[in-house]
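User: Can you fold this complex?
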Amino acid sequence: MPLYAQHGHGKSDKISTAFETGSIQGVVFGARNEKPANLVPYVREIRDTLQAQLLFDPQFYVSTLIPPNDRFLPEYPYYRPGRTAGDFVGARRLSEYARQTLDVQMGLDLDRLIAPSVLFNTFDDRWYQIALNLADASLDYHAGLKDPPPLLLTFAFSEEALDSRSEVDVFLDQVTSWDTKGFYLLIARTEVGYSQYFDKDRLSQLLYLTLVLSIINGFEVVNGYADFCGLLTRAAGATAFATGWSQALRQFHRKSFVRQTPGHRQPRLRYSSGPLFNSILLTELEQISDVGGLGLVLSNVGLDKMIADASSPEASDWNLRTSELHHWETLQSLEGKLSGDPSADFDRVVAWLKTANEIYVALKQAGVVFERYTQGQHIPEWVEGIQLFRSAVSV
Amino acid sequence: MANLPKLTADQVRSIIPAATDVEKLASGGQKLVFRGTLYHKAYALKFALLPAEVESEDAQFTDVATRAAREVEIMRSCSCPYMVKLGPIGLTFVTFEEQNLLYFSEEFITGSSLKTVLATDGPLPASEIVRLGVQIASAIQELWQLGKIHRDIKPANIMRSRENGDYVLLDAGLAFDVAGDSLSAGFLVGTPPYFSPEQFDYSNRRILDFRSDMFSLGVTLYEMGTGQHPFWSRRETSQNVYTKITTFTPQPPSSLAPGIPEALDRVIMRMLGKFPHLRYRRCEQLISALEEVRIN
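Assistant: Here's the predicted assembly.
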């Protein structure tokens, strides 16, 4: 059950379509973009018609962001905007947050409950301590529930937290002592735009953290908003990874949950290329087609037919919906080649990445011009990150 | 070296008139230990010296007394057959010939400590290492259920019973109560060559739980299986021991003792993980892993 849809704004029929084509195996519903009154029948409908793992991200962490982009969250009983550290003082309050958040989920037919948490930057800031206390309160409340679904504890943190190995170790020592089913991990990206780039040292720590929690300690690990990087955490033992259809739902960026000034430009059409490990622009795919390189970058999934059958990518009927569904198809296709053996899977992933690098070099030499975030600078960084991780854990 | 009571067997008999056949056994840590018969059964009678400057009515509040009370409470609470039990005399305070003393009795295990076993008979075979691991892991598990960490697991604190060959963990005198006050703030307590890496952490930033005892048990299994300590030898300085425990990965036990199967190697090496999160997260998992070695 490795790839889940990260639900958010504008779901239309994308989730059910993706299930029908076998691109996803689960959904992480997001509270922000679904009214409580609509959520119950929606979850029931999916439960009744599809074989799926269903989870609900309460998005409690939005309550500490200012000004929040919280849409329907104020309709949920556990949510209140503008919470400060002072709102987390006292065990009774934390218990109440845990109770309210888990009770909402007990009313849904879910496979796992997801604990409330707050976003923190590093493992030594005070918000981290609050996150630990909330997790502890959630464990306590969950233990008293009658036949609840297993609990996943949420930890949502900036990728900067991964800079200190010693702090990661202290975090792992702490959370591996808890009696929980697993963890729902959200890594807030520091890149300003939508990019696959991940600093090699931080990536290495993320993989270490995932391996320790999953393979060594036997916890379930679900990486939310994981995008292409979710393939790496899967190789390191994560149970599943989730990613959404739009860019804001594919990766976790703090700004996505903070109110922006109005006036967004329309998203540009993208194509998620498995061989390039990237979601490139359709205009870039057009250039690639022009230099005769289309065969090198197509993901070899069902929706590719639309492009392969057209005279050129831009002349095809490729649209936003297709592009979004295709993203899951591509990730699913790559994920399906992983075996569950970290050593073999990292060998495989590194081989893919090396091929991706060669394709990028060849395309650039042929005159294809990529934009800042799509030119593949993440590939060598990922390879180095994987090497650092593997040498540290002998995988 | 801690101050020990100055007592003879005859003096013990006068302090505990019900005791017969009293003989001095050993002194270790902060206690002087006698063997004595109470109500037709042999027990260990343990005595500790309280600070002379403390008024007798305040003696129970000293660190020595608090530790002893913790040890007695653990022995009273544990039902695990692999943890030594309290005898008929609970914690008792007495002033004897100007010495403020405390004493209690505990189960007398007929047999030898593993330190003696190693010195006289050499390493244990793999099947006995598995048995030792399972039994002491059960004791660690029960201690943890009581919120306690032993902190001083080593061959000298484990007895092999002559009666049935079972292993029994002794001396919970340094046990750490997770919910209680620290009695060692700023000090390292225990036996450094058997410390877990996190026991060296003066700052208390790192978590200390049953996985620390699991590491010490791993050191003990390694030593009992190979005849060699994984991190310590007579020429090591204390600084070297610290560095080795926190950074050095010893060679697998089977490279020193070919009779140790690979599966047992893996279990012991995992117990020696440098961080708690690299070891087993539950004692049951460790016990299952050892049971699997036994089956295979």
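The longest strand of chain A covers residues 151-158. Chain A touches chain B at residues 169-170, 172-174, 176-177, 212, 216-218 (CB under 8 Å).
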